[in-house]
Specification:
The chain is mainly β. The chain is built from one helix and eight strands.
Length: about 240
């Protein structure tokens, strides 16, 4: 008869702990933004490929300044000389009226005695009574047009150091081809050779009467000559 199996177990203590599961909530704070929604467009980009490249070699590059001139025909007409005459200066004076007695003049004609020969070469009596005297000098050098530089001055005969207020110089060539004016006490100008009529109007001051002096200027490559003419309207000063 079979023998029953005998099982023997070693007892081992086993401790079982009551496990309790506790769930804790972890809070994570996130800032939330609200924006205005904007429509954004995206364009489909297509790659463009270029093929068949051709190389071009340029040699001998020279920079040249090309100047082109338009030729225009210039015409010169015959020059016409314009002669201006009757230049008259009118001055208005306002003076205080003063009573001045005048004596009746009586002219007596008497035979004139012979004048000695030594006075024949002296200046004209009319010129001796002129209050103003003109002088002309020239420069030794010539201008580019072979003209002579002439300087004209005017002074008082009895008081050369007294200033002269020149109102007008007038230089006119006899053939009318040249005419110029000036107001400086010393008038300087380059003139071509020839004969000129010279006149100057001057006075001592603004309250003095206006006097005029006339003369003939001869300009040559070697010398300058000025011949003063008497003027009846001038009174001695």
């Amino acid at each position: 008869m079979p023998r029953p199996a005998v099982i023997r177990t070693n007892w081992v203590d086993h401790w079982v702990t009551n496990t309790t599961e506790i769930q804790l909530q972890l809070n994570r704070f996130v800032t939330e933004y609200h924006t205005n929604a904007t429509i954004h467009f995206h364009t489909n980009y297509v790659d463009l490929f270029t093929t068949n490249l051709v190389s071009r070699t340029v040699t001998n590059m020279l920079v040249l300044d090309a100047v082109q001139t338009n030729f225009v025909q210039a015409y010169q007409t015959n020059l016409k000389t314009l002669n201006l005459t009757n230049w008259t200066t009118v001055l208005a004076f306002r003076t205080n009226w003063v009573t001045k007695p005048l004596t009746n003049l009586v002219e007596i004609e008497t035979p004139r005695e012979a004048v000695p020969s030594r006075t024949a070469a002296s200046s004209s009596p009319a010129l001796d009574t002129e209050p103003l005297a003109m002088q002309a000098t020239r420069s030794l050098r010539l201008t580019n047009g072979n003209q002579i530089e002439v300087q004209l001055t005017v002074t008082w005969k009895r008081a050369p150091a007294t200033p002269v207020q020149v109102q007008q110089w007038r230089i006119e060539r006899e053939d009318g081809s040249f005419l110029c004016f000036g107001q400086d006490p010393q008038f300087k100008r380059a003139l071509p050779a020839g004969t000129y009529k010279v006149s100057v109007k001057a006075q001592r001051d603004a309250k003095s009467p206006l006097l005029a002096v006339l003369g003939t200027l001869t300009v040559t490559p070697r010398e300058v000559l000025l011949e003063q003419h008497p003027t009846r309207s001038n009174s001695s000063i």
